[in-house]
Structure formats: structure tokens, C-alpha cells
Amino acid sequence: MVLGAASLLCVAPTLALAQSAPLGQPDRPGITAEPAPSPTTPPPAYPPPQATPPPYAPAYEAPRKSRSDRFFFAMGLGLGGGSSWLYGAYSAEGAATILITDAFRLRARLFGTIAGGTMESDWSGGFYRYVAGLEARMCTAGVGTCLFADLDAGFERLSLYDGSSDFVRSDTGLVAGPRFGFDFGGAVRARFALELYQHYGRHNSRTTGESTERFGTVGLAFALGYQL
């Protein structure tokens, strides 16, 4: 009898706990099942696509700012000659842009020798050239490199003396012709030019006296200058 009563006392609490817990639900606090979606519930919003362009899209490049070329000043060296004589001279030049179009730029230009000399055989003498002209320029974007063509006109004088400083010849008169070349750089620029000038004027020789003469010269010029 005593053992039977003890067994009933142990089974009773177990049955009470089993009846208090609902079937199919674990006894874990804080865990609930999500409700089933309703047919009228809108779908969840997706994040917008990234703003970065696809890898094949060309990158945008801001237009390059054009360098200023309103004024130009330079010092240079020129070498050339005529049919039988040579010349060399240090020079200075200045230019100002007077017209800018989509196709070209136009400059007004002044050029002059600072010191120069001539040579023929064992004779030597002086050389002077002062010209003004117009220069048409075609430049790359940003005015980094430019091709140019000049048309100049001005005054030229050359002389020759022998080893005893006796007069041999002189030519004084008008000089005119084109120049072709290119320059490159930024504010500091280097210039190279081919000069094809014609001289018209008075020729004076100790053997033939005075006459009017025309002759051509070919020269190469280099200059280093500053553009602003």
C-alpha cells in the first residue's frame, strides 16, 4: 500500500506538466512563427542599382584648358648664308596675338639681330637684319605644340672686309620672305624655323663699284622664349 501511494504521487506531477505544455510547441520563450504572407501584401522594396558606370562605358574627361599665348618674347641664334658667304647672329623677337579663330591664330611679330657677323673665304664683316611680319599658327589642344608660317619684310645690311680691314663689299636694302617652323612647351617654349629670304638693294664692291642686286639667303633659326 505504501509503495502504491508513493508511485501515484510521482506520476501526478508528471501528468500535470505534460498537460500544461501545448503539443507541437517547444517550451522555448521568445520564439514565434512568422505569419504567412498575404496575397495583397506588396513585395519588399529592392535597393536602387549602383551609380557607377559599367566597366565598358568611356570615362568623361574634362576639356583641357588652353594655355595663354597673348604675348611672346624670345632670344635666339640664327645661321645661314647666300651663294658664297655665311652669316651668324644673336637675335631677339617679340610677338602679340591679334586674331584667334577655330582654325588658326595670327600674330604680329618683330625681329632684330643683337650682334651678327659674316664670313667669306678669309674675309669677315658685320650682319644686321630687322624685320616685321605676320605669323599664322596652328596649335594642338592646350597650345602645347604649334606649327607656324611667317611672312616678314624689313631692312638688312651685310659687309665684308679682308684681313687688313680693307673694304671688300657691302649689301644694303630690303629683305623679305617666309619662315616655316614649329614651337613647343608651356610658358617656356623652344622654336625652330627655316628662313627663306630675298634681299633687294644696293651692292657696293671695291672691284665693280655700286649696283643694284638681288640674291637669296637660306637660314636656320633657334629661339628660347617665354609666352604669356
Q: Strand order across the biggest sheet?
A: 1-2-3-4-5-6-7-8
What's the total count of β strands? 8
Low-confidence stretches: 1-5
By secondary-structure content and strand pairing, the structural class works out as mainly beta
Number of helices: 1
Radius of gyration: 47 Å
Fraction of residues in helix: under 10%
Oligomer description: single chain
N/C terminus separation = 123 Å
Report the β-strand fraction as a percent range: over 45%
Shape: rod-shaped
* Helix-strand topology string: HEEEEEEEE
The largest pleated sheet is described as: 8 strands, antiparallel, barrel
Q: What's the overall average pLDDT, rounded?
A: 84
What can be said about this structure in brief?
This protein is mainly beta.
